[in-house]
Write a structure and sequence with these properties.
Layout lengths: L16 E6 L15 E3 L5 E3 H12 L4 E5 L4 H5 L7 E5 L2 H5 L5 H11 L4 E6 L7 H9 L5 E5 L6 E8 L1 H12 L7 H11 L18 E2 L13 H19 L1
Parallel strand pairs: 1-4, 1-6, 4-5, 7-9
Antiparallel strand pairs: 2-3, 6-8, 7-8
Helix pairs in contact: 1-5, 4-6, 6-7
Amino acid sequence: MSNSLTTPTSPSTPANLHGLLVLGGQSTRMGRDKAFLDFPVNETTTRPLYLHLLDLLHQVCPAGVYISHNASQVETLRGAEFPVGTVLVQDDDRITSADIGGPAAGLLSAHFANPEATFLVLAVDFPLVTLETLTDLASRYTPPVTCYLHASDSHPEPLLSVWAPEALEELRENAMGEKKKTGPCWTARRIWKRLGVQTVGEDGKQMEDGDFVFKPREEQWLFNTNRPDEWEKATSILSGRSSVVSG
């Protein structure tokens, strides 16, 4: 295990910041692939959700954006047109052979594709994020890993976060080594604890705003859509935003 993780002196946004859009798994609870849901651009126009989020990431991550996807999404993605600097990354064979799924599969597949990159990670099931969300997260990044906290329970969100290469390498060691710990939050908490941050432990304390974790300025940013009713609520909120803008 490398001991290269040291306490940072100040937040910084790395020059090699890449975006990582995680398209997710089978979307069984939604009943259709969440990545391709119709995002309401305005009252008359929609576009696939993942393309809307991809554009946001490109505005914040000029070094490029990776799209992590699974085999079932290949055909749809193959026919799409992407901005320059977009890289498609299918789940790596080393990940699937090790039976690693969930968020770790997307993060590690991107890490294998570009081991030197720091990734601003966004899951496709956060449709209410805005450009402000991503610029806020990037500007408050403190290496080696920074996450938003859910306002409801103060738990870190690994799929709206920034991961340095050394943090992703530690995730790889934990997921593919003897520990078989595939949860990104498990790795992040171990890193933060070594750096002296109070994490959830036997005392029951939750994490508080600090250098590595912080609550979003708008709670809606972390609204997660896994079911049709959640998507309906999200589109209702989005329609309200459009009305405010157009008005």
